[in-house]
Amino acid sequence: MMWVRKMDKKAYTEKEKLVLVSLVKEYGACIENKKTDGTSIQEKQNAWENIASYYNAQPDINIHRTSKQLKKLWDNLKQR
């Protein structure tokens, strides 16, 4: 049986975290909205896609991250 190795996950640097925090501040009202209707959910998804695009366009960012990964990081940072 052949074992498939999962893709290595790289830890976020402090610089990457700071970039995310600064981008989230711009979209904070949208992504922290408590509404769960279809329109609000779509707006949140669009906001996270925009955040991911801006994040990955930064010159100091070497590892491409998805909107899902960035949202998870944000959720983890909020917990701390």
From TrEMBL:
<dbReference type="InterPro" id="IPR028002">
    <property type="entry name" value="Myb_DNA-bind_5"/>
</dbReference>
<dbReference type="Pfam" id="PF13873">
    <property type="entry name" value="Myb_DNA-bind_5"/>
</dbReference>
<keyword id="KW-0804">Transcription</keyword>
<feature type="domain" description="Myb-like">
    <location>
        <begin position="4"/>
        <end position="78"/>
    </location>
</feature>
<comment type="function">
    <text>Involved in transvection phenomena (= synapsis-dependent gene expression), where the synaptic pairing of chromosomes carrying genes with which zeste interacts influences the expression of these genes. Zeste binds to DNA and stimulates transcription from a nearby promoter.</text>
</comment>
<comment type="subunit">
    <text>Self-associates forming complexes of several hundred monomers.</text>
</comment>
<protein>
    <recommendedName>
        <fullName>Regulatory protein zeste</fullName>
    </recommendedName>
</protein>
<keyword id="KW-0805">Transcription regulation</keyword>
<dbReference type="InterPro" id="IPR001005">
    <property type="entry name" value="SANT/Myb"/>
</dbReference>
